Amino acid sequence: MFRPILPALVLLLVLSGCGAENAGDVEPERYAQQVCTGLVGWRDGIAGDSAQLTGSLRGAADVTTVRARYTRFFSGAVRRTDELLGTVRGAGAPDADQGLGYARDLTAALDRTRAGLAEAQKTFGALPTDDLSAYAAGARRVRDSLGALFTQVGGTLDKLGSTYTDSTLNGAFRDEPACQRLTGA
């Protein structure tokens, strides 16, 4: 009498152990589309802001003008990063093996980028304003240091792809056109 129940219980236990572990509830394709679309908008927005800043500094002859234009740039970069974080958080977590960890680690990396931008903005705000040439050179150094922050985001995506090896999720990122724009594929 107990024998037919035992195989059924074993089967139930085996089947309940199958499937993605620590998965979210968003289809991987949808998650990749939302994340990469957000990243492309963020990257393109900051690149456009940087080009606009460079153009607006031509002919700027006083610290007040230079400071105002850099302030606008840094404020915009922080705002864009906040928007990206909102997009990534709003995307949820992918329904993939360790999808919750993937979403957590991506958000943490973007939080670090946001903190780095805020620190750069703070450093910029502390530059001495008594000499336009020195001020502009210091502001350029701060702006140029942002390249490392932006490169880290790309490195994070590469690391996430090798750390979280769910083939469905990695395939979704590989096949998503917005993700291809990020990698130049």
Describe this structure in words.
The chain has a single domain (5-183), classed as Up-down Bundle (Four Helix Bundle (Hemerythrin (Met), subunit A)). Helices cover 78% and strands 0% of the residues. The protein has helices at residues 5-16, 28-57, 63-90, 99-125, 132-163, 167-175, 177-183. The longest helix has 32 residues, at 132-163. It starts with a helix and ends with a helix. Mean pLDDT is 85; it is low at 1-18.
Strand content: under 5%
How far apart lie the N and C ends?
Answer: 61 Å
Largest sheet: none
The overall pLDDT, averaged over residues, is: 85
Give the CATH class: Mainly Alpha
Helix content estimate: over 70%
CATH architecture: Up-down Bundle
Into how many domains do the coordinates divide? Answer: 1
Structural class: mainly alpha
In a nutshell, what does this entry contain?
With 185 residues, the chain is mainly α. It has a single domain, classed as Up-down Bundle (Four Helix Bundle (Hemerythrin (Met), subunit A)), CATH 1.20.120.
How is the secondary structure organized here?
Elements: H1 5-16, H2 28-57, H3 63-90, H4 99-125, H5 132-163, H6 167-175, H7 177-183
Helix pairs in contact: 2-3, 2-6, 2-7, 3-4, 3-5, 4-5
